[in-house]
Design a protein that fits this description.
The protein is mainly alpha-helical. It is 57% helix and 9% strand. Strands 1-2 form a two-stranded parallel sheet.
Length: 91
């Protein structure tokens, strides 16, 4: 997981967002949530949804990998997906 890049999500007033965006100059990945429909709690909601999707996917893929036949088939038919799964699923 050495290539994982932490992303900070921010939502606030325009002035504070620009200050928050300045963190990118220090090598941090910053994603600003602004514009129509952006509101309080959106960054937290996004973080929770992303975490749920990743953890659910890891659980599903771990279950799938328990079946040797499926693992072999995915290695042949979906080799790019298998490479991504191997890097996503923790040891």
């Amino acid at each position: 997981m050495g290539s994982y890049i932490l992303c900070l999500f921010g939502i606030r007033s325009e002035e504070l967002l620009e200050e928050f965006a300045a963190l990118a100059q220090y090598g941090l990945k910053v994603s600003l949530l602004k514009g129509a429909g952006a509101g309080i709690g959106d960054a937290s909601s996004l973080k929770l949804c992303e975490s749920m999707m990743k953890k659910g996917s890891i659980g599903l893929f771990m279950t799938m990998m328990l079946t040797d036949a499926l693992l072999k088939e995915l290695s042949i038919s979906q080799s790019a997906l298998m490479v991504r799964l191997i890097h996503t699923v923790p040891e």
